[in-house]
Amino acid sequence: MAGTFSQIYIHYVFAVERRENLLEKPWREEVFKYIAGIIKGKKQKPIIVNGVSDHVHVFVGLKPVVSISDLVRDIKNNSSNFINERNFLKSKFSWQEGYGAFSHSHSQLDTVYQYIANQENHHRKKTFKEEYIEFLQKFEIEYQEKYLFEWLD
């Protein structure tokens, strides 16, 4: 019987609802580890999960048994439940609708990993809006700004 072989790397980007700075440092790492656990639980490979107070980058080795949209839906649903069940915030937490999904080749793994690992430093120089629009342009994705995330900056 023939097997299925694939090499698919997806870089997800999604934001906190209303782009509020709610992912606080004292528990942010715990949420990122939980997100990695969600990915593992779906039999996918979490490469790195990192972000800042208002958005997250998730880099995944994706097997074709799950769709890109199903995985991000499960990540967002389960992680928002995790945050709310632990009462990390006084108000209800949720992710903003939508996400970015960008594919990378195996040769780009280290570059993408380092980029995501250095989010804190990166955002001292560039806003999330600038970063996200650069991704859309780099990957030649057509967009209308009114359909992007809610921007605070």
TrEMBL record:
Coiled coil: none annotated. Pfam families: Y1_Tnp (PF01797). It comes from the Bacteria. Residues 5-119 form the Transposase IS200-like domain. One of its GO terms (molecular function) is DNA binding. SMART domains: Y1_Tnp (SM01321). One of its GO terms (biological process) is DNA transposition. Transmembrane segments: none annotated. NCBIfam families: transpos_IS200. This is REP element-mobilizing transposase RayT. It comes from Cyclobacterium xiamenense.
